[in-house]
Amino acid sequence: MDQYTQLTLEEREMIYTLKKSGWPTKVIANFMERHKSTIYRELNRNLDTNLGYLPDRAHKMAQERKHRLERKISRNPLLKFYILHKLISEGWSPEMISGRSKLLSLPFKVSAETTYQYIFSEEGKELGLYKYLYSQVSCATLNIVFRLALLKPHDPSSQYKAPTEDLLL
User: Fold this and answer.
1) How far apart are CA 41 and CA 57, in angstroms?
2) End-to-end CA distance of the chain, in Å?
3) Hey, what long-range contacts does 77-86 have (CB within 8 A, 24 or more apart)?
4) Of 168 and 152, the one with more pLDDT
5) Neighbours of 9 (CB within 10 A)
6) Which residues contact 53 (CB under 8 A, 6 or more apart)?
7) Are the C-beta atoms of 61 and 46 separated by less than 8 Å?
8) Within its chain, how far is the Cα of 123 from the centroid?
9) Domain coordinates of the chain in residue numbers?
10) pLDDT tens digits for 58-100?
């Protein structure tokens, strides 16, 4: 249960069979070696109000959801350019990109989650977008940036004064 993998059609069929046999959701999760929230989410997200949970239908719905977010960015070249420009050229995080797109009332909106999913999609991996996330920046680089930020005066009208020897003691 260390690394998440999407449920397969066979696993969805097993959930259906075990649930129909009256097994509790927590027991199904333990039996399948999945987190209980994965099973609960699966049953709630893919439940048809008239027919109940159907594994083949649930699998199709999950596949459609998986590709819907990738398609949103791929089908909108302006949104794709905006994300790539802010991520690569300006070093923005997906949260910053999302917040600014909402704040500026741009003709498109994008959530941070959608941006992360795009970054880790096949297209995003090919472009190496994960390299531009903050967590990929080395600690040494962050230390240099932090030290440079400390050297800048907070008040642009004031002159920067180097620390005197008595301040350092």
Assistant:
1) 15
2) 53
3) 78/107, 78/108, 79/108, 79/110, 82/106, 82/108, 82/110, 83/110, 83/115, 83/118, 84/127, 84/129
4) 152
5) 14
6) 15, 16, 19, 43, 46, 47
7) yes
8) 15
9) 9-66, 76-136
10) 999 888 877 776 678 888 899 999 999 999 988 899 999 999 9
Contact 43, 19 (CB under 8 A): yes
Could you tell me the two tokens for 71? Answer: 């398609």
Q: Residue 148 — φ and ψ, nearest 5°?
A: -65, -40
CA dist 77 to 40, 74, 123, 133, 136, Å? Answer: 36, 7, 14, 21, 26
> Which residue is associated with the tokens 């997200």?
45
Both structure tokens of 18 = 């075990």
pTM above 0.85, yes or no: no
Residue with tokens 């159907």: 54
Asked if 95 contacts 112 with a C-beta cutoff of 8 angstroms, the reply is: yes
Beta strand 52-53 with 47-48 is antiparallel
What pLDDT is recorded for position 146?
52
As a whole number of angstroms, the distance between CA 141 and CA 131 comes to 14
